[in-house]
Amino acid sequence: MKRLYTTDIRDADEGEEVALRGWVHEIRDLGGILFLLLRDREGIAQITLVKKKTSEELMNTVRGLSRESVIWVKGKVKQEDKAPMGYEVIPQDIVVLNIAESPLPLDPTEKVRADLDTRLDARFMDTRTRRGMAIFRIRHHMLQATREFLSEEGFIEITTPKIVASATEGGTALFPLSYFDKEAFLNQSPQLFKQLMMAGGFEKVFEIGPIFRAEEHDTRRHLNEATSIDIEQSFVDHNDVMEVLERLVSHVYERVAQDAQRWLDVLGVKLTVPEVPFQRLTYDEALDIASKVEPELCWGDDLTTQSEKTIGAEVGEHYFIVDWPTDAKPYYAMPHEHKPEISKSFDLMHPRMELASGTQRIHQHALLKERIASKGLEPESFEFYLRAFRYGMPPHAGWGLGAERLLMTMLELDNIRECVLFPRDRRRLSP
Ligand code: ATP
Ligand code: MG
């Protein structure tokens, strides 16, 4: 006898013996006939118990089950057009593996919709809903497509430390922790380590891992612990890695549409694969558009949330903002040779928000040291990083793409917290 998921039943033969395991989604007791809806991670199957054909004992077992109890059902497949999947299972045996308490923290049938806080507090039950399950099944396909794409492009997957001695970009947005007798921090980005591996001779690396930002923002697109998709590549400039980025985004949309259509349907999302190349606006052009709504904006300012909205509404699809003022970008951004006040930098934008930031990096030791100092940082605390630039550092470029923002914009979700199993934000540290 095969162990099947509920969705496999359509391929089973009439009269075939099957075993299903899952949760009690619903029980409908019509007296002489009992419908038990069994749910597993893939779908729902109808288990039908008819008084004349089923033992009294089995009928009573089912009558005694609470919703969301865990059961094992052995039975025979029967075609039935009125059942949810076109089939039902006539049980021979039902084993109760675990009884669920009631009332439930939320309703997995989604007849009663729970608010986001309730869902996050009972995440273990939220992912039993079709919506909760769909988001994380698509997240899986998105990350798988990312790994597949970058591996095929020749990028080597690396893992870098999350406990670090100093800030990546200076500033204060760090979570301190005690590391034996020293002070340490949770890393805000793999930036310095992926650059070290350019000196390490890897030429193309990527990492998918956590980043920690101690910013106190409380928005729908910021988390204090997020997942970053990062690449770094040697012997190329910012334009080359922008091409990798736009092709990656397009590939991810395409693969998700191919591999996860049924989960997109659950969310009612119709994906349009973004066409490459994405439009490129210079910072100056972007500022012109934004200034129509915010005349107070000055050259050199970072773009506000409002600016991102204004420009996004005008462009209407994924686009890049390139050539940012050097001072608006981190110290490692390479200035343009003939116009050093502008850097070889870019942000990838979705009409709703920023998705990624990248630059060609400074690979010359003296210039890098100077830029670190000019930001008011201590070059001494960057010695582990600067050292690598003295012994043969190739020119290189890279970017960091927020995995949750990619998922959130792809699925048109309102709040980034929906894209993380156990989000960490200003108020939320548990579960
Ligand atoms: P923003 O200005 O939107 O706060 P940022 O410019 O500070 O973002 P970067 O340091 O450029 O962020 O990080 C690269 C990418 O990582 C961002 O474009 C975003 O997709 C993602 N990211 C950064 N910080 C967060 C966060 N707090 N929550 C979720 N994603 C984040
Ligand atoms: Mg950025």
pLDDT under 50 segments (min length 5)?
none
Under the CATH scheme, the architecture of the largest domain is 2-Layer Sandwich
pLDDT average, as an integer?
96
Helix content: 25-40%
What is the end-to-end distance? 39 Å
Oligomer: single chain
The CATH class label of the largest domain is Alpha Beta
How would you concisely characterize the structure shown here?
With 431 residues, this protein is α+β, with helices and mostly antiparallel strands. The protein has twelve helices and 17 strands.
Topology:
Blueprint: E1 2-3, E2 17-29, E3 33-39, E4 44-50, H1 56-63, E5 70-79, E6 87-98, H2 116-121, H3 123-126, H4 130-152, E7 156-157, E8 163-164, E9 175-179, E10 182-186, H5 191-199, E11 204-212, E12 225-234, H6 238-259, H7 261-267, E13 279-282, H8 283-291, H9 305-315, E14 319-322, E15 345-350, E16 353-360, H10 365-374, H11 383-386, E17 396-402, H12 403-410
The protein binds adenosine-5'-triphosphate (ATP) and magnesium ion.
Plain-language structure description:
- By secondary structure, the protein is an alpha+beta fold.
- The chain folds into two domains: 2-98, Nucleic acid-binding proteins (OB fold (Dihydrolipoamide Acetyltransferase, E2P), Beta Barrel); 124-278 and 317-419, BirA Bifunctional Protein, domain 2, CATH 3.30.930.
- 28% of the residues lie in helices and 26% in strands.
- The strands form three sheets. An eight-stranded mixed β-sheet has the order 7-11-12-17-16-15-14-13, with helices on both faces. Strands 2-3-4-6-5 form a five-stranded mixed β-barrel.
- The longest helix has 23 residues, at 130-152.
- The relative contact order is 0.11.
- The model has no long low-confidence stretch (mean pLDDT 96).
- Residues 213, 222-223, 226, 228, 354-357, 400, 402, 404-405 line the site of adenosine-5'-triphosphate.
- Belongs to the class-II aminoacyl-tRNA synthetase family. Type 2 subfamily.
- Mg(2+) 2 binds at residues 354, 357.
- Its main location: cytoplasm.
